[in-house]
């Protein structure tokens, strides 16, 4: 079981504080005045957004209300230990939040800008929740209040985990809000079934207070190394007029290919990747944003044998693609706020619009490629509110290379997710995921197992050319609030999946696999180091090589 997963989600200093306060906190429940989400309605009697827009109102004053982890006004949080945690925590600085705002004093009042700013703030790992609301309208000016709630972002952690029948360990120290400036730095040592790795990672989403980003990552592993650098100006808003992206990566590792959960062969992969691109947009017009992008990519892959008990019988051939490309993307502005669906106790922004994009490129030996090929990448997603209590979300991606008359590395993936809120505290969830491939590159493998949603089976158990996974889950949400650190939930589930076709290492098709199980969920309310802690007990309904009667999976995930 992954006890360290708990330490990762709820960092050591906060766990200690909670245990010391256990007599007051254990068994605590939420009341209307004790919710950890920010509930800040606009003042009664304030003019409507439509009226202020029609009047040509402008932003008058912007007030930032940055709140601490624990609320001193809440009697259950106003104790010496929780206040000590506030004192030890370096609160987010005002310029950090101000850099995220999509409006300034003197701008025309636009409620869509306020809503998008609020959504953007909630995506930051050092923010638990955010509200951006108009609070006063007078003399043609609208005063706006920006409210955020901090979380604990410093974590020294030790973890031991087991999923899909394999162990992994990790020792790390990470900070996602360095000195209150919103920067991330992480130093770690980890070991899993594939490798042992020492790594350092730095991310800056607002370089020198601007919209430029910077990322740098270095890892030294038992089987190679990974060096990664990126910088750019992203499309940070639906109205952003331009973007720039720069990426570089040097990557060396041992690739393991699996059959029935066991390694069957290994080889070394060396990759060099470079990208430079830019984009233009006319902004949000009539609820839609259209973006054109163009750039160049170079991706060189070389392969060699390694000293191993499982040498590759045939090495993949060298592959280098180098190509200019153009792309087009369209995004509809349609988001809605919900709660207790994929998170516990957090405000969620679900996308109900239509989004689609396509990229076309041509790799040619004149650009340094090892082969001529047309490159195609496409994606689409759509959300539907079927009834007041049911929702459906569809996502699809497509990638392929066309080399002469041959289609290579074609991957078509589709996901459908369905939600039915049966009661305020009960949600029925169904997910169907399907993937099909053609002439998959030999350094890639389409697999399914305990690490990819089939919770009752070893990791990477089946492989093939097509894959299907169906998950059915009944989710339960409660008001139990143990230690005032986490919201509590539970789930009962069933997974059904399999692969078809002869994969790159042969046929490993034991047929349809299924499992049933139950799990506990702890929604993180005080830390930015993982949103939901999972503790699952899965029972496989099929027998076969390497399959145990019970799998225990503990880990931190982004959603329920």
Describe the structure in your own words.
By secondary structure, the protein is mostly beta strands. It has 2 domains: 31-150, Roll (Ubiquitin-like (UB roll)); 154-557, membrane protein fhac: a member of the omp85/tpsb transporter family (Porin), CATH 2.40.160. The chain has helices at 3-9, 12-20, 22-25, 49-54, 80-88, 94-98, 111-122; strands at 58-67, 127-138, 141-150, 154-163, 166-175, 183-191, 196-204, 213-221, 224-233, 242-259, 262-285, 288-304, 319-332, 335-339, 347-351, 354-363, 373-387, 390-403, 406-423, 426-438, 446-448, 462-464, 466-477, 486-500, 513-524, 532-540, 551-557. The strands form 4 sheets. It has a 20-stranded antiparallel β-sheet. The longest helix is centred in the first third of the chain and has 12 residues, at 111-122. The two termini are 19 Å apart. Residues 1-34 have low confidence and may be disordered.
Distance between the first and last residues' Cα? 19 Å
The CATH architecture category of the largest domain equals: Beta Barrel
Q: Radius of gyration, rounded?
A: 25 Å
- Overall shape: globular
């Amino acid at each position: 079981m992954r006890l360290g997963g708990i330490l990762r989600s709820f960092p050591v200093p906060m766990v200690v504080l909670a245990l010391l306060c256990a007599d007051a906190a254990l068994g605590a429940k939420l009341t209307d005045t004790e919710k950890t989400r920010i509930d800040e309605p606009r003042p009664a009697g304030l003019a409507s957004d439509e009226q202020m827009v029609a009047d040509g109102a402008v932003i008058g004053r912007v007030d930032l209300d940055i709140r601490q982890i624990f609320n001193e006004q809440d009697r259950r949080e106003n104790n010496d230990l929780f206040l000590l945690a506030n004192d030890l925590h370096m609160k987010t600085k005002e310029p950090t939040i101000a850099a995220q705002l999509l409006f300034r004093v003197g701008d025309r009042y636009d409620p869509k800008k306020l809503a998008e700013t609020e959504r953007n703030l909630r995506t930051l790992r050092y923010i638990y929740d955010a509200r951006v609301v108009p609070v006063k309208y007078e003399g043609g000016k609208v005063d706006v209040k920006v409210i955020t709630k901090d979380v604990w972002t410093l974590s020294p952690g030790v973890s031991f985990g087991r999923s899909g029948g394999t162990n992994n360990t990790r020792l790390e120290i990470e900070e996602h809000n360095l000195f209150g400036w919103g920067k991330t730095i992480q130093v770690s040592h980890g070991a899993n079934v594939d490798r042992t790795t020492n790594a350092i990672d730095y991310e800056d989403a607002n370089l020198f207070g601007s919209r430029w980003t910077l990322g740098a990552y270095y890892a030294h592993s038992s089987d190679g190394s990974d060096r990664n650098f990126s910088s750019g100006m992203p499309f940070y808003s639906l109205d952003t007029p331009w973007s720039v992206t720069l990426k570089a990566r040097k990557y060396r590792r041992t690739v393991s290919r699996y059959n029935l959960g066991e390694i069957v062969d290994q080889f070394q992969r060396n990759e060099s990747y470079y990208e430079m691109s830019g984009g233009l947009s006319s902004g949000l017009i009539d609820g839609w944003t259209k973006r054109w992008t163009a750039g160049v990519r170079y991706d060189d892959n070389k392969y060699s044998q390694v000293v191993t008990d499982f040498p590759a019988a045939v090495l993949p051939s060298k592959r280098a693609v180098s190509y200019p490309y153009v792309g087009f993307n369209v995004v509809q502005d349609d988001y809605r706020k919900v709660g207790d669906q994929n998170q516990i106790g957090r405000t969620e922004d679900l996308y109900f619009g239509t989004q689609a994009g396509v990229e076309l490129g041509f790799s040619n030996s004149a650009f340094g490629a090892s082969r001529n090929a047309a490159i195609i990448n496409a994606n689409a997603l759509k959300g539907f509110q079927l009834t007041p209590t049911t929702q459906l979300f569809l996502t699809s991606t497509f990638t392929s290379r066309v080399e002469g008359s041959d289609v290579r590395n074609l991957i078509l993936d589709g996901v459908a997710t369905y939600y039915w809120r049966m009661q305020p505290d009960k949600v029925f969830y169904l997910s169907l995921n399907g993937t099909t491939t053609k002439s998959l590159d030999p350094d890639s493998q389409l697999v399914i197992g305990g690490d990819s949603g089939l919770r009752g089976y070893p990791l990477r158990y089946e492989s093939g050319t097509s894959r299907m996974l169906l998950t059915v889950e009944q989710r339960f949400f409660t008001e139990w609030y143990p230690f005032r650190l986490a919201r509590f939930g539970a789930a009962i589930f069933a997974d059904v999946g399999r692969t078809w076709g002869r994969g790159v290492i042969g046929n490993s098709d034991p047929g349809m696999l299924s499992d049933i199980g139950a799990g506990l969920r702890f929604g993180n309310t005080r830390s930015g180091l993982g949103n939901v802690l999972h503790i699952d007990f899965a029972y496989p309904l099929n027998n076969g090589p390497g399959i145990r009667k019970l799998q225990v999976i503990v880990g931190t995930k982004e959603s329920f």
